[in-house]
Design brief:
By secondary structure, the chain is an alpha+beta fold. It contains 20 helices and 19 strands.
Length: 607
């Protein structure tokens, strides 16, 4: 407890009403937000002389002031607490990092509706099915519906401008309504069957298709009967995989797994009795560490902190907690209709819960194993480079181009917990001679380091460049010009065989060359970062090259709009013949003056 905070005097005047409390340090930074049915009783528990958990004791030691907000009920306090946590993200609260909205399947309106994945607000006309736990779960459902019912999934703009069937029709994943190869009635029937599947009425759908198959067979329409048989077979396989024929209910099944290295909450999404999939979340640990407290905090933040999130009629949890009844009341108020939170379940619901628990355990084990392996690699790198402190952040640069075309530099960042993809950067290199890798590296490093000097981003502990002595010396020149003297520089050059495990490393200078054993964890970390930089650079280069090749040089010429481009290409038979033409020949094209012809000729022969 800090000397600046008089806990005894504060508690003497503290309210006994329900409400929210906010704890601040001596720099007025918000440390923790909590709620209480009785504020005085709850806050008194923080300042007892013994029995505090280590994290709680660390929090109390930093408290400089506490602010209270009285509410009319404990439910109001819970809602306010989640609003404040979402807005301020205090370091001692359990924090849910995934703020993305869950995806839905959208069935558009119109004569020939489209099925597609949708995120965000539901403004477009049509029906929405979900939410699904991940985009992968939706793509699996859409992939099945494409095969079974062949409802279109193409963009409306693409659909409206077709003059002949596309590849989807050829591989029997669409009936080509765009060119009238299916009647509106038949397509509507396929849409109706797709809706039955998305609503979870797979059993009724299978029975209906079976009746249609028998009727087709009796009418000797064996081709139609065979098609219906194949549809039924695919639906049956899905039902067998889900193990839930005849089940009903909309539920989110939440299981928590806690270990000294972190926590995982797995959500299994069940809609209309169908398991749509699962997703694991890894909340930042707060001062509470019991599974019950973590699960209660997660439920409050996940549902109450996101008013736009759809609430199921039932939430099944792996651990009962003292706050479940309060959470149930708050969620029921938000949903506006019945909702229950249950910890003790039987039958199919118990099997759902068991599946969620298994997923939580495996996801947490995999995350901790990966983190432990990466941590050991950072330690090995510090030892190999004889660093006094353990590096926390590596940045690696690489260059990619095709014979100098569309040169792109990449900067990737690796931390002790894995790639920090939000800090990745690409640099489109301009004003450098084609194929000048050194000049491209100089430009990328200058742009990156100047931004860091301005305070835009975090400084790396080690700077890696993919290349040998030349790239290393270029990077040293940039560091010297920018007066950066305390940043370790590591060059990574491929060995004579150019195979992994034979790299030559240069630390700070070209004279300080060394190699590491092929099984060295430090070398594995360097290879991992180097390969990621290479991948990121190639991806950017291919995108830039593709864009350049899809863009006609005519598009950059003032006075040459879409109509004139079409007329020019039509007159000469293509861009290749146009490029061979002289300015006089170009001026003979319809609508092209002599002056404009000279501009076109100059643009086509600028390189």
């Amino acid at each position: 407890m800090t000397d600046a905070f008089d806990a005894k005097a504060f508690l003497a005047t503290c309210s006994t009403h329900p409400g929210v409390y906010r704890m601040f340090d001596d720099s007025a930074k918000l440390l923790y937000v909590g709620k209480a049915k009785n504020l005085k009783k709850r806050l008194t528990s923080y300042f007892r002389s013994t029995g505090l958990a280590p994290k709680t004791a660390a929090l109390v030691a930093r408290i400089h002031s506490i602010e209270l907000t009285i509410t009319g009920s404990e439910t109001e306090a819970l809602l306010l607490e989640q609003t404040l946590i979402k807005e301020w993200r205090p370091p001692y609260n359990i924090l849910l990092r995934d703020d993305k909205s869950y995806p839905y399947v959208h069935l558009s309106a119109g004569e020939f509706p489209r099925l597609a994945l949708h995120r965000g607000s539901k403004k477009a006309k049509g029906r929405y099915f979900g939410p699904y736990p991940s985009a992968l779960a939706i793509r699996e459902s859409l992939n099945l519906l494409e095969k079974v019912f062949q409802v279109r999934q193409c963009e409306d703009s693409y659909f409206a401008n077709r003059s002949r069937p596309c590849l989807q029709y050829q591989i029997k994943r669409c009936k080509a309504p765009c060119v009238g190869l299916v009647s509106e009635a038949e397509y509507a029937e396929d849409v109706r069957h797709s809706v039955m599947f998305l609503e979870g009425r797979s059993q009724a759908l299978s029975q209906e298709l079976s009746s249609q198959m028998e009727a087709a067979a009796q009418q000797l329409d064996f081709e139609q009967a065979a098609q219906l048989r194949d549809q039924i077979a695919m639906l049956r396989r899905v039902q067998d995989q889900q193990h839930m024929e005849g089940e009903q209910g909309d539920a989110d099944v939440l299981a928590v797994q806690v270990s000294p290295g972190g926590a995982c909450v797995n959500i299994l999404t069940v809609r209309q009795g169908r398991v749509l999939g699962g997703k694991s979340h890894f909340p930042q640990m707060g001062i509470e560490e019991t599974p019950e407290d973590i699960l209660s905090a997660f439920i409050a933040q996940y549902y109450l902190g996101h008013a736009e999130r759809d609430l199921p009629e039932e939430i099944i949890v792996s651990h009962p907690g003292d706050e479940l009844e309060l959470l149930e009341d708050a969620l029921r108020e938000v949903r506006g209709k019945a909702l229950s939170i249950r910890a003790k379940v039987r039958g199919q619901r118990a099997r759902w819960l068991s599946l969620a628990q298994t997923n939580a355990e495996q996801a947490l084990q995999a995350r901790l194993a990966s983190r432990a392996q990466l941590s050991s690699r950072f330690i090995a790198l510090a030892e190999a480079l004889e660093l006094e402190t353990l590096p926390q952040r590596l940045e690696c640069f690489d260059i990619s181009h095709s014979s100098g075309e569309a040169t792109v530099a990449s900067c990737v960042v690796m931390g002790v917990e894995g790639p920090i993809k939000s800090d990745y950067r690409r640099f489109n290199i301009e004003g450098v001679a084609a194929g000048d890798d050194y000049g491209a590296m100089r430009q990328a490093l200058e742009r990156r380091l100047k931004r860091l000097q301005k305070g835009e981003g975090k400084w790396p502990d080690i700077l890696l460049v993919d290349g040998g002595k030349g790239q290393l010396n270029m990077a040293r020149e940039v560091l010297a010009e920018l007066a950066i003297t305390d940043l370790p520089l590591l060059g990574v050059a491929k060995g004579e065989t150019r195979k992994p495990g034979f790299e030559t490393l240069y630390l700070d200078t070209a004279d300080n060359a060394f190699t590491l054993p092929a099984d060295s964890p430090a070398l594995h970390l360097i290879q991992q970062v180097r390969d990621e930089a290479h991948r990121f650079a190639i991806t950017g280069h291919r995108a830039a090259r593709g864009k350049a090749r899809r863009t006609s040089k005519l598009e950059d010429i003032p006075g040459v709009g879409p109509k004139r481009r079409r007329e020019l290409l039509k007159h000469f038979g293509g861009l290749q013949e146009l490029s061979r033409a002289s300015s006089e020949e170009i001026s003979k094209a319809p609508g092209i003056s002599k002056k404009l012809a000279e501009q076109i000729y100059a643009a086509l022969h600028s390189e």
